[in-house]
Amino acid sequence: MKRKIGLLYGGKSAEHEVSLSTAKAVTQALNFDNYEVYPIFITLDGEWRTGPQLTAPIDSIEQLQITQENSLPNNITQFIEAHNRIQFDVIFPLLHGTNGEDGTVQGLLEVLNIPYVGNGVLSSSAGMDKVVMKQLFEIAGLKQVPYVHFIRREWESNQTAIIAQCEQQLSWPMFVKPANLGSSVGISKASDVTELIAAVKLALQYDRKIIIEQGIVAREIEMGVLGNDKVRVSVAGEIKPVTAFYDYDSKYKDGSTTLIIPAEVPAQVVAEMENMAKRAFKILDGAGLVRSDFFVTADEEVYINEVNTMPGFTPVSMYPLLWQHTGIKYEELIDTLISLAIERHQEKQQLQYNKD
Predict the structure, then answer these.
(1) Are 187 and 179 in contact (CB under 8 A)?
(2) Candidates 3.40.50.20, 1.10.10.60, 3.10.20.30, 3.30.930.10; correct CATH number of 3-116?
């Protein structure tokens, strides 16, 4: 019997377009002989729209942008009605960034008791918030670069003190980031106070919480993690952007970044990154998939930068490419993630919710 898969994509997020590209790629890789595929589109306004069953891969992003009349923003009634009618075996969230990768959608699916691909509420929300993530990494004893963090109100009331703290605890250049956003949106490199102030102003357009990290001269190396309680780690891959850092355009638009897979790093460095990737996955209570990002210096010091709980997932994105070079093709990777989602959901159904 075919599994009924709901593809959940779009989202009220700065990474909306990235999500559409991911959804298109997944439809082109799914085996329609094994799955009934149903599109679930969230508009930029937060409106949920469900479409008829897909019987073939999508050729263009425009086909994914379901149009409906007389719909209300943030109305998820259609989705719930669709689930009651179809009874999805699993939802595949292909959402990046805010209101999708941050545990909010995962919480909805938990309440509805619907299996879903990827990380749960805790790991998604903790992985999305770079400050919380780094604080957990500290608990796990994972080596990372120094950082400073603050919220909008603190910046507005005591900007001078925060700048002084940055200059005392960090050195130039610094990287300024919204704490809760991915795909390098809103990130800037600052080499002096003037640039720092401008970078914070930009970052505050995307989030109320800001993190400023110590710049470091290092190679950017990434690894994929796959599994639930028992995980596998992919080969390592190196990112070589031609810009100052791996920004949004480098990732998704201009194709200027070189990806080297497998990365040319010594075996002991690979082993250290594998160990750190597994420890990071465990302390976040990860499930399904995570991409772990590292800095490796010229003297082979390894720092964990961050993890991404819903990494880019087109066939040319780093996470699927890492697994392709490890021996798992894109189509097989999708099948594996769906199976892991159902496995985790079945385990949860064994829990007892009364004391008798």
Answers:
(1) no
(2) 3.40.50.20
Closest CA to 100 of 181, 179, 177: 181
- Where are the CATH 3.30.1490.20 domain residues in the chain? 146-214
**Angle subtended by helix axes 130-140 and 267-283, to nearest 10:** 110
- Fold annotation for 146-214: Dna Ligase; domain 1 (3.30.1490)
What residue spans of 98-223 are helical by DSSP H? 104-111, 121-128, 130-140, 152-169, 193-203
| Per-residue pLDDT reduced to its tens digit, 43-79 | 998 899 999 999 999 999 999 999 876 566 667 888 9
What tokens appear for 14 in the block? 């700065």
CA distance 337 to 321: 15
Please spell the DSSP secondary structure of 61-84, one letter per residue.
Answer: GGGGS---SS--TT--HHHHHHHH
Residues 6 or more apart in contact with residue 348 via CB below 8 angstroms: none
List, as one string, the DSSP characters of 304-348.
EEEEESS---STTSHHHHHHHHHT--HHHHHHHHHHHHHHHHHHH
Return the CATH class of domain 219-347: alpha beta
The two three-digit tokens of residue 336, written as one number: 């594996």
Q: Residues 115, 343, 135, 177: what is their CA dihedral angle, to the nearest 10 degrees?
A: -50
Q: Which residues pair with 36 in a beta bridge?
A: 4
Residue type, 300: E
pLDDT, tens only, 70-118: 566 667 888 999 999 999 999 999 998 888 889 999 999 999 999 999 9
3-state secondary structure of 290: strand
The tokens 């880019």 sit on which residue?
Answer: 312
Sequential DSSP letters for 13-60: STTHHHHHHHHHHHHHHS-TTTEEEEEEEE-TT--EEE-PPB-S---S
Q: What is the largest CA-CA distance in the chain?
A: 64
Closest CA to 73 of 104, 55, 46, 40: 46
